[in-house]
Design brief:
Butyryl-Coa Dehydrogenase, subunit A, domain 1; 11 helices; three-stranded mixed beta sheet; binds flavin-adenine dinucleotide; Butyryl-CoA Dehydrogenase, subunit A, domain 2; alpha+beta; binds 3-thiaglutaryl-CoA
Length: 393
């Protein structure tokens, strides 16, 4: 720092967002941050390099109360939504793939069973999933139907009292390590959800290899070849596309918060680097162009933080709408990826290996920009709300 100026403030602390949080929310946030600092950060570069997700993290997350965190009953932690959002922020500050694991487990697989399942399905799966002893995945996307899941071809047809599932799902997080899959399929009564133990004959999962993004996360293709399921496997309370889209609201909220963590981690890493890297006989942090980048990025970061807290409060108040979630996902992911790329420029050549986080975050955020509704899908959802006109088709 130039002499005579105050000690640098970390970007994430600039607006004192902490003052908007309760003591309990801060405690959950701090516990998750400590866990990530001690158990994820020291290893994440290697996991990303090797393309592995350490499965044993599931039980540790269960012990910490991070799985199905904002769900009540069935041995789930039952925190408020804001606390869940803050946990996502801290996990994604370490790596988006790690936050993805928790999102899919809690917000997609467990939420679907919790919200749409029978009492028997809840008792069978939720306590084990909350403890991390059973891993879940969520199959909506197909090779030919991503943004438009309404066109799905996976079918479940009746055979006596059973259902026979056929088809495939693509890009499924946790697919290859899952014990149970929530699968959405076309039936004679519209789109319905099924709880499918992955050991059922005819079910198979093949992991996607050679990924350039989300390397510390398992992504798989699921295939169903005459998978026979009892009537009790169907989620009784989900009818039509509103079932999976309802679960997506939950997970998208986690992303709105999570990506703020990734952006914060990038800026703080660039701040530290810029203060120690000397060129032209001075720290690069002293150049006006570097400061412009840091200031612009931090302004976007704090706006994203405020948006995340506002949506968290709305979720807890029961006033959060899908359009509000689209605004949050569109803005926060778009800004986070811009921030990650700009931070990489501050790191120069040092920024291209896994030693520093920004390019790993940027690569992960390419997936986040695409999954759970692409940036275009969310722009069109906001556009539809603003005009009343559907521009999807
Ligand atoms: P549309 O006609 O608008 O609606 C069909 C039915 O769904 C209801 N609905 C919703 N319900 C709850 N929440 C929402 N956000 C909802 N949006 C719509 C709607 O009321 C209607 O209900 P009903 O009862 O009248 O039938 O549907 P559309 O076909 O026009 O599609 C709208 C569109 C394009 C926005 C939707 O298809 C969409 O969101 N597409 C994106 C697909 C997507 O996000 N896939 C994500 C897959 S899972 C994933 O990516 C996990 S990544 C996990 C990780 O690793 O973290
Ligand atoms: P497409 O829908 O083919 O879109 C390609 C491009 O066309 C995009 O830019 C899109 O915005 C644009 N486009 C499409 N329609 C329109 C339109 N009407 N107007 C303008 N532009 C349009 N899915 C699951 O079900 N479960 C999971 O656990 C899961 N995990 C994932 C993990 C990763 C790492 C990734 C990358 C994906 C995952 N997905 C999962 C799938 C994800 O939800 C889809 O990739 C996403 O919905 C987009 O579908 P698509 O890839 O088929 O792209």
């Amino acid at each position: 720092m130039t002499s005579g100026t105050a000690a640098p403030i970390l970007a994430g602390d600039l607006l004192d967002i902490d003052s908007l949080l309760t003591e309990e929310e801060r405690a959950i946030r701090d516990t998750t941050r400590r866990f990530a600092d001690d158990n994820i950060r020291p290893h994440i570069g290697r996991w990303f390099d090797e393309g592995t997700f350490p499965r044993e993290l599931a039980v540790e997350f269960g012990n910490l109360g991070l799985l199905g965190m904002h769900l009540a009953g069935y041995e789930c932690p039952g925190t408020n939504a804001m606390s869940y959002g803050l946990a996502c922020m801290e996990l994604e500050a370490a790596d988006s793939g790690i936050r993805s694991f928790v999102s899919v487990q809690g917000s997609l697989a467990m939420y679907s069973i919790h919200r749409y399942g029978s009492q028997e399905q809840k008792l069978e799966w939720l306590p084990r999933m909350a403890a991390g002893r059973a891993i879940g995945c969520f199959g909506l996307t197909e090779p030919d139907f991503g943004s438009n899941p309404a066109g799905m071809r996976t079918t479940a047809r009746r055979d006596g009292t059973d259902w026979i599932l056929n088809g495939s799902k693509m890009w499924i997080t946790n697919g290859g390590i899952a014990d149970v899959a929530v699968v959405w399929a076309r039936t004679d009564e519209g789109i319905r959800g099924f709880v499918v133990p992955t050991g059922t004959p005819g079910f198979s999962a093949v992991d996607v290899k050679r990924k350039l993004s989300m390397r510390a996360s398992v992504t798989s293709e699921l295939s169903f070849d005459d998978v026979r399921l009892p009537q009790e496997a169907m989620l009784p309370h989900a009818h039509g596309l509103s079932g999976p889209l309802g679960a997506l609201n939950e997970a998208r909220f986690g992303i709105v918060c999570g990506v703020v963590g990734a952006a914060r981690d990038c800026i703080e890493s660039a701040q530290r680097y810029a203060l120690t890297r000397v060129q032209f006989d001075r720290p690069i942090a002293g150049f006006q162009l570097t400061q412009q980048k840091l200031a612009d990025m931090t302004v976007e970061l704090v706006k994203a933080q405020l948006l995340a807290v506002h949506l968290g409060r709305a979720k807890d108040a029961g006033t959060l709408t899908p359009t509000m979630i689209s605004v949050g996902k569109l803005n926060n992911v778009r800004e986070a990826i811009d921030i990650a790329r700009t931070c990489r420029t501050i790191l120069g050549g040092s920024g291209i290996t896994t030693e520093y986080a920004p390019l790993r975050h940027a690569n992960n955020l390419e997936s986040v920009l695409t999954y759970e509704g692409t940036v275009e899908v969310h722009a069109l959802s906001v556009g539809r709300a603003l005009t009343g006109l559907n521009a999807f088709t």
